[in-house]
Amino acid sequence: MSEVLADFIRALRSADVRISTSESIDAGRALALVGYDDRTTLRAALSHALAKSQDDKEAFGETFDRFFAFDQFTQNPPSQDPSAEESDSGNEGKKGESGGMPGSGSGGLNGERAGDGAPQDLAGLLASGDQAALQMALAEAARQVNLNRIRLFTQRGMYTRRMMEIMGLDVLNDRIEGAERDGETVKVERMREARDGLREQVRDYVEKQLELFTKNTGRQLREEVLSQVRLSNVDRSDMRFLRIVVRKMAKRLVALHSRRKTVTRRGMLDVRRTIRANTGFDGLLFHTIWKKSKVDRPKVIAVCDVSGSVAQVSQFLLMFLYSVQEVLPEVRSFAFSGQLGEVTDIFKKRDLEKAMVETLREFGGSSTDYGRAFRDLEALAINDLDHSTTVLILGDARSNNGNPRADILKKIHARVKQVIWLNPEGKSLWNTGDSEMRALSPYCDRTVSCSTIKGLERVVSDLLRSAS
Amino acid sequence: MTGTQTGAPKAGAAADIAAIEADFASLGYICNADIATSIFLSQRLEKPVLVEGPPGVGKTELAKATAQMLGKPLIRLQCYAGLDESKALYEWKYGKQLLYTQVLKEKLGDLMEGTKGLKESMTRLHEFDDTFFSEEFLEPRPLLKALWSQEGAVLLIDEIDKSDDEFEAFLLELLSDYQISVPELGTIRAKHTPIVFLTSNNTREIGDALKRRCLHLYIPFPDSELEQRIIATRVPEVQANLRAELVAFVQGLRKLELKKQPAVSETIDWARTLVLLHARELDAELVRRTLNVLLKFQEDIDNVDSDVNALVAQSREASARLVG
Fold first, then answer.
1. How far is B198 from chain A, CA to nearest CA, in Å?
2. Mean local confidence (pLDDT), B216-240
């Protein structure tokens, strides 16, 4: 596979596009067919072979534009025949990317260039102002120092220096010194200027490459960290970002759990349906049908405390639940601080951010009263609770010293499949102060301390897994 | 993989792609270079194409047009939940087998004549063994038809997202090697590699394994210029200024929050409607009366109602800019 393509694929991978080996092979074959001549065709062909979803296509578009923007030299790998040199000059003329180099115009000087990697007459190159040759030398140097392995921004200086060295910095410095000794001030001045210009250009090139190959590593790290930070500690400015993280996780959960739909009980003949299917064959059993049972999607009732700090976690729990709607179609959600009310419709119709604002306006603000919340829940939904329902309660169980009405929770617990309590506080804080966990936890199948996105993901994932 | 950067002339590719685009246009299927490139690649690389996009942008139509262009038969397999291999691949002709057994029953005595003992009869019977499970009694379904087709075929596996995961997995062998294993017959290879299209409306995520085996083409809603060309080809009766207006209107409509956005097929229907009504230009009243052609939910129609005036004004402006 050509080096350019390999680099491009690595750039794509760093932009979060998943590309398998077989896909890169396809891309190589497609590339062999269409070539580099026509940018639009190249773009279309590679996008068909490499980017396989709408999100991927977007990322692909961005990466393609950046990768092939300043790529006129890499497309002709170094050490080629002289004809490559010519076409390169042509390209250069068209695209005209000159990085502040003194003098321009395509000069001669074909002999000295590239290929063997030996330090060349950089001074001569600079003096002639041959852009194409310089670009070639630059690309060659980049290849030799493995610039495409650059990972950290602190490596910029090192890579720049090493590339300069390969391009013949020492020889150039010697020349400058020599000229200085001879007292040719004008020449020295000019060469110094050219050298600094070149350094600038090399640095620029290194920076672009760094951005291309590491665009997302910072973001990936941030995602990783944020998903494990307590939600109450997350900065407001990171909220938007977290929403994206949640959406991504939800998508993964959906992909994971959209599979198992029926469980086939092998070995049990479904006699009734088999006879029915075989009436056409005179009752001879050509076609056997086996018993299978459909797995019910769990019905979920989410009861969320939306007061104070718990609201943050509630928001993301609800977001999770509604992002996995494909596999969890029956979610009813209730929000409370004092009074409890159903918010299912708000979340189904609006987009999540607006829905949360509305929920908070309507139900947030007043002091938490679990007793009242359970009473309201009983009145609103007790008839919908059955053995396939899972009740998720999210709250800190701090009822401001009011009666938490554990008896109602007991009644609910008796009717449903399971009650899961998510408490954003750490376990050591449970039962301290006005926390009523001790009174309530006997009627929960599971109590989980859960204050991070990761924790929420785990809960939702378990919920989906238990769907049998 | 070393020879990918051969020095062979690549100009051919661009010309071929342009030719495909032109051929499509002559068949009344207007497409952009992106779509033409995917057809070109799928032909050359012999890879299936997974076509995604909102409903009504011409995914199925693309397969039909390709079949027409290549002069090959189009074999279509509509996917749905519960589709299994006996409906997609092959089925034994049970009835025929049964009938033959009945007929043969009377001949059985003749066949067995001269055999002594059970063992000998069994040997004799074995000689006829495979007759009942030969191609004679095989009922080919779309997939097998496509593999058997003498002159090659265009196979359209429509709405793959509606099928079950098991079926998706079952397709993998077909898509990567153009062969299929039938337990009774062994492996069946394609006589001519068919051109395979899979379409999906994205009602569920298609598995990675399947995606990996396909080229992926996403057809979005067309831009205004392309949509005008489509309308001009499909509904030539509609006049230029009205065409520009109605396309601008639909494009504006797509920017609104709707339950279901109007697709190209709806634009075409609407253009036909307007021609039938002898409309010369858009006005708010006319639009309101015919909005149900474009929007398929009463909720959407109600929501758009207040925006109609503004949209009509906008599209008139757009059209004036284009025509004038």
1. 13
2. 91
